[in-house]
TrEMBL record:
It holds the Pfam family CBS. It comes from Planotetraspora thailandica. Keywords: CBS domain, Kinase, Transferase. InterPro entries: CBS_dom, CBS_dom_sf. This is Histidine kinase. One of its GO terms (molecular function) is kinase activity. Residues 102-155 form the CBS domain. Coiled coil: none annotated. Gene3D superfamilies: CBS-domain. SMART domains: CBS (SM00116).
């Protein structure tokens, strides 16, 4: 059986079930979901169950790692592991809503008929490792950067 050419593939060929979170979920729980399932990010749903945003794992890190360590890598080097482990707990009662960027930007959402080049362009433009695939307002799942790259390079 011949493998389908990448140029003929559509988003529906790569979409897979993907975990979602709500805006009011504690960000510490979102971080645990990211870690437990080795995810690059999470799809955040609004009150109607529709994609509201993508929460990349790097955004959770920005909240967990103290600003002074982000600004000065030399300071990060001197903090011992016992203290570094407390950073995630320092997220406290923050929610996913609190961790999202303040200004709206393009939502990484596409339809099932989008080409893989369209999906790749959307990921690149939005700096998102996850693209939600929606059909008629219903979330079908997502395409991850890893799945897209695997298909594009032929693994």
């Amino acid at each position: 059986m011949l493998r389908e050419r990448v140029s003929d593939m559509r988003a529906h060929d790569l979409v897979a079930p993907f975990p979602t979170v709500t805006l009011d979920l504690p960000v510490e729980q979102a971080a645990r979901l990211l870690a437990d399932q080795d995810l690059p990010g999470l799809i955040v749903l609004d009150e109607r169950g529709r994609p509201f945003s993508i929460l990349p794992g790097t955004q959770v890190l920005r909240l967990a790692v103290p600003r002074y360590c982000q600004d000065d890598p030399a300071l990060a080097r001197v903090i011992d592991e016992a203290h570094a482990d407390t950073f995630l707990r320092a997220l406290g009662e923050r929610t996913v809503r609190d961790s999202l960027p303040g200004r709206p930007r393009e939502l990484p959402v596409t339809d099932p008929d989008a080409t893989l080049l369209e999906v790749a362009a959307l990921m690149a433009r939005t700096h998102s490792p996850v693209v939600a695939v929606v059909d008629g307002g219903e979330l079908l799942g997502a395409i991850t950067l890893q799945a897209l790259m695997d298909r594009l390079v032929g693994t």
